[in-house]
Amino acid sequence: MIHWFPGHMAKQFKLLKEKQKLFDLFIIILDSRIPLSSFNNEIYKIANNKPILFIFNKADKTDKSKLAVFVEEYAKRGKVIVTNLKSNSAYTKINSALNACFLDLKKRNEAKGKLTPSLKCVVVGVPNVGKSTFINLMAKSKVAKVGAIAGITRSEQWINCKNYLLLDTPGLLMPKIESDEVGAKLAIVGSIRQEALNQNELIQEIYKLVSQYYPGRLNNIGLEPAFDEIDILNNINEYAKKNNLLLKNGVLDTNKAINMLISYFKNMDNVIYDSQLNEEENA
């Protein structure tokens, strides 16, 4: 289903590898609804042993009861902050963490008799995860483009935040998305352009995800959980009937039903689609 790895992403991976020595800190932004599927494991290889700050964004949309195990896992590799980058408390939490990193670097440099320039931080994450929102928040101004469309940031820019510098980067997908399920997860949070996907295949995968993790959300709109292609199609037809979605000739408008369902699934709150089993398999 997913065959989307734009050229600018491949170029950015190469640039990050080349510039790795410049960075004092890797800031990795994750979507709290898919804390595993929104992480590109290639970043670990690039970061090597450099310090990492993980920011779990959109925490207001996730199932917090299931998030703790992922936070614990990432905390083994770096510091973790769980937040909503649009919340009032986000700046204070993150600014405190970054200043602490700067002071730690300063202390180490003073022991060696060195001066300490601003902490150089590179901000990475899959498309539409909130990197530009993060940059604007920390800069306290709109210095980065923000949008709900994957791939909106295409160029690098350094932002000066006194004790630390932030390098914004284009969203980085993994070169190969391992399964249609992972592709569906990335699509449901907007990390892959919907136009790049086959809508019939996409709705099948998303419907299975919701059926597995949140069947009650289907019941809320008069549908039933389903995992078979025919059963899912029957539910889509039922949805079209319930909502009187008809073409001029009276035939059910399944395309409109699919788009409405995808929109409904995308806007669901208090959800998490990655499982502990996935985590163990990816370890």
UniProtKB/TrEMBL annotation:
Residues 121-183 form the G domain. The keyword Electron transport does not apply. Keywords: Cytoplasm, GTP-binding, Nucleotide-binding. It is found in: Cytoplasm. Its main location: cytoplasm. The keyword Cytoplasm applies. Required for a late step of 50S ribosomal subunit assembly. Has GTPase activity. PANTHER family: MITOCHONDRIAL RIBOSOME-ASSOCIATED GTPASE 1. Belongs to the TRAFAC class YlqF/YawG GTPase family. MTG1 subfamily. This is Ribosome biogenesis GTPase A. It comes from Metamycoplasma neophronis.
